[in-house]
Amino acid sequence: MAEVIVQRACAKLRSAIGYEAVARSNFTGDLREMLAALEAIQPVVDKVATQLVRDKLLSSCWLHSALNAAYRTIDTVDELQDARSQAATTMTRGMLPRLAIMKNAMAIQVQGTKKLVMLAQQQFRGFSEFLVECTIMFQEITEKRKTGPVLEETMVLGRESDKERIIAALLSTQLNIMQEHNTIIPIFGLAGSGKTTLAQMVFNDKHSLQGYDFRVWVYVSPQFDFHTIGNSIICHVSEMGQEEINHSSSHVEGMESIMKRLHELLNGKKVLLVLDDLWEEDPIQLQLLKSMLTFLGDKMDVIITTYIQPCHRQEDLYS
Fold this sequence. Notes:
CATH topology of the largest domain: Rossmann fold
Strand order of the largest sheet: 1-4-3-2
Order of helices and strands: HHHHHHEHEHHHEHE
GO molecular function: ADP binding
InterPro entries: NB-ARC, P-loop_NTPase
Protein name: NB-ARC domain-containing protein
Helix content: 55-70%
Structural class: alpha/beta
Distance between the termini: 35 Å
CATH architecture of the largest domain: 3-Layer(aba) Sandwich
Number of domains: 2
Radius of gyration: 27 Å
């Protein structure tokens, strides 16, 4: 959404640069500078709007500045178009003094809009450096936090009752032959509260939970991405390696090919899926995740560990 607004502003500028009236008013150079600035900002705007950034206040302030500049650019170009029509009428009536006033007013507006655009670009230069630092730090943190299904028994203390309640919930849904949707059980808790350990305990209990064709563990991480989740599941249930999966199901192909492949692999199969460390808070993204899991079939049991309480769908048994 945010990127579309900047794209529209750029398109308006490209169109306005060709106006004869703009050339006569000596606005072409200003508009070209504004276009270059917005084109530099455009690739990052949508990324900032949709991805998790460590300093949300800073990212929100810069995004507001960039979108404000884009909106003002659109309004200014629209007024340039109106002024072009009015100037033609004024010329035919011989009202040159009024034409000079209109030109002066537009010059003031163009310069004011240009200041906003150039300010957004200046802020962007500093912000882009900040983003690079955040990305490096984020990757380091993610790598340290990355989890897997292997359980260290010596670390488990006092979670047996929680484990048994989750297993009982999974077994009760298996006995319900009328159920036509998959089971999603969230485990909520603050960092270090043992969410992952509890999920590992359930995941590795092959005595109580039997009959699964596949057991799949996916570390979601703060960087929520449907492609990564889909590719990770494919990697677990097929004989392809992760690098081969990433190459064959790239972002260019889109989610459609990934979902098609998942449906081929999982159709009719019973799956226990753990999505560990979900940070995503956007209700739309969470609904899309639910839809994605539903599409994969009604024989899938899903455990999600998260610190986001609204992700709950059942009672707070597992917090």
